[in-house]
Records
---
Amino acid sequence: MWPRGRKGWLLILLIVLAVALTAAQTRALNRGRPSPLEAPAILLLKPFQNCVTAVSRAWDSAIGGTDSRLSLAAENRQLREQVSLLTVKNAHLSHIAAENARLRAMLSMKQHDPSGARWIVADVLERHPSHWFDMLTLDCGRSAGVRQHSIVLTTRGLVGKVVVVRSDTCDALLITDPASDTGAFVPRTRDVGYVEGTGHQEMTLHFFDRDHGVRVGDSVVSSPFSATYPSGISIGKVTAITKDAGASVSQASIQPSVQFNDLGEAIVIP
Amino acid sequence: MSSPDFRRSLRYSGLLMGLVVIAAAIQTRLPSGLEWRGVAPDLALAIAIAAGLHDGSMTGAAMGFLGAYLIAPQASLSPGSIYFSHILVGYLSGFPRARLYTENPLVPVAAGLAAGVLSETFFYLLTPRSPLLWIQGAAVQGLYLMALTPVIHALLHSLGRMMESGA
């Protein structure tokens, strides 16, 4: 397939291209914008991604319908098809009702926001394709006023912050990512510290004061001293405390308030 | 290179690239749906490995590059690691082709496992993070690629034969 004697040069060319693309993307990332060299890749993938999404939705819908039919056939064979249809419709309505409830909760949160900041409700487009970074892509970008370091949250609690902004989408780094440090506050004891991601669905709370009174079950919110996040946003609950006699500080395991795996929408505060 | 050979080669390359694009679209749109133990299979890498095994190092490296180019914009914090792990693993996958009898189905199985571990190791060396993430990623990605590579390799083999008989 490749011309003989030129394979070495082709490999070098690929590596040079990779270096150039990496440099362009890293430089663009530091400015919080996508690299223009990424545009062809995004354009090329988009129609295929839309097909994948459509097939996935059709599959989910078919599986839901089949399950319903099987369970109802045992009760009444003659009404199977009708019940199946109603079940599918009902599932669709339940999805809409759940979405409505979540959006209402977001609206209520917005009405109680004392700062009066503008909020953007965005759909989660995708989770990051690598397990090395906990990130997700949202369907709002520069055109909606999103900026680098904009805050992302849900009605349940803090999600993370925006690290890359494109014209119509943005990438948010989750608080569960190891690169994420979040100032934390335990309202019951007024202890402060910072929460660090572990790359898994749990985080570690490092206390500034060794003699804290935090217990399992205490809720943890964003710190009033945080320069990044607004104070008082729920981060999670304490599930375990490490009391290491040799260490100068102790730690706690935190279960996040937000279920990141089934996140459908999120609020972005520009 | 004769004209029918060149056309066949072009058609085959187009098909390979199409496969990489589809794999990248699935990988970037459904990562949580494909996840097991927090790790999603790297489908584009599986195609690069199978292409390397079937068609040689340069094809593996080129498909690795294409897959990385498509995935890197969605992986904004680690583009370099993605490029280099995909290109190098795709390139190295061509080595067994030159040294082993690749009709043996165990070769793609072993190559997939080794390539999964190798790509996660490259990634870990280029983007140092928790060793636990690396061990988990290497183990799970190795298993994924061990299962996927023979299937894709067999598909490429059939495609190659179909094109030869059709030409």
---
Amino acid sequence: MINIKESKRLSNDIRKHAVTMTSLGGSSHIGSILSIADILAVLYGSILKYKSDNPKWVGRDRFILSKGHAGAGVYAVLAESGFISTDKLKTHYQDGSDLSGHVSHKGIPGVEFSTGSLGHGLPVATGMALAAKINKNKHRVVVLMSDGECDEGSNWEAILFAAHHKLNNLVAIIDRNRLQSIHSTEDTLSLEPFPDKWKSFGWEVVEVDGHNHEEIFNACSNINTPQNKPLCVIANTTKGKNVSFMENNVLWHYRSPQGDEYKAAMLELEKNNA
Amino acid sequence: MRDAFLAALTSLAEKDKDVVLLTGDLGYGVFEEFESRFPGQYFNVGVAEQNMTGVASGLSLEGKKVVTYSIGNFPTLRCLEQIRNDACYHDANITIVASGGGFSYGSLGMSHHATEDLAILRALPNISVVAPCTANEAGEAITAMIQRGGVAYLRLDKTVAQDKDFASSFAICKARRYKEGSDITLIATGGILDDVNIAAVELEKLGIDARVLGMHSIKPIDIDEIIDAVTNTGGIVTIEEHNKDGGLGSAVSEVCMDFGVMPKKFLRIGLENMYSSIVGSQQYLRSRYHMDSVAIIDRVKEILKT
């Protein structure tokens, strides 16, 4: 079950960490991180099986962030979940740090796989899910992707493969914030009818409000999922969610929150904790 | 070479259930027996090399020892970033096998000429790059790669040099001397060693006593043998069915510079920085691009004259 209040607290903490990290390091992609904070909170708070004191526990669920540019969000949730210290987060993106702008596993317990170039996470997750099937393991493999990265053909190779091999232990969550690097997804390389594309490739598809913790939880709990299909959860999100001046503004794919902007962002997030 | 590779892989798969073969929809008439004998250890992933390499990485991170297989440049250049990011950076246990090194598929055209693969793959950290010279070496190489773990690239040629009995067993990074000699050292990688062996016999008749090294491993490379060749023979000629930029000759010359040993003579024989729009058999193209036994004899004679 999910404790909505705790889950929302966690997502707000992820957001605050991320705003601070991107401010301290002067790094990009805060909009992309705020977009997935609720998904990360539900996964790490209520869905994924893991042991933070034993990150390589064989029975753990595997999680891959394929949109590696939102890596600060994963570092933040790992800190909040006991894998790394919250102090370490302050080094993100800076000289000598191993908390790179795009998520990297080296030296960071809890990071399953390093990404950064788009279109890599799903094929790897598919391989992990296939291995679990071969080995008759019960854990699941969850990969969180951006909608923009579905431009990459490698994903569609994996989408075909996962359905062909009936990998019902595989969950792909799409951060459907509809904004990519310069323009909207639909103005760049139209994805719609997006759910139908996944369905026609043989996946079970569920659409949720990507900021509604209960909906994310229910979808990822695999309730009512047929036993022979991988699951795609299309999470409709808002890029920059919960910082009003960042919402739906592609500028915050790049801009680092500094000075008054940083203070204003933190003030809005602090109010959510009150 | 492919048969020896498959025989060795079959033997490995028999003993170890974690050995998994992925093919990018190539190997008709080759893998059927493997597929039927080892369910759960063989997957035809379709014509999708990026996914094949990603899936291989995922399997490997879960403990599988994975072989990806295709021909020419497909399992390497098509999915180079997956090899770099997913396999090499993650210390995966994957052997990438390309059937058809160099001009093996000469008549199929430029798309199927694998003439930059060694240079490109050896530029990656955390990978071994091996081009067996003989049929037996192909089997020995895949066995060594699977046993050793890590990421490796295995380049299989259609043509092979004749096997020879050696006192020591095959090891990645240990070159093999096919002929002793002191006037010059001919260093070859891959099946083109056959032309080098023929050339060495003919050179002997002309009074040129050539040492012949089969350098199956380009990375890591046998530094000791290169230094020995520089020190104890009259120079080095490298022969590769590959573009000259970045391949065997480059790797050998890097060793010479790094270790401060200067060969008395030095020549790289390979493809002269070009793509071939001309097609033909492997042997025809070797001849056309001046890397067959006839060309080797002429060029060695010439270099020793100057």
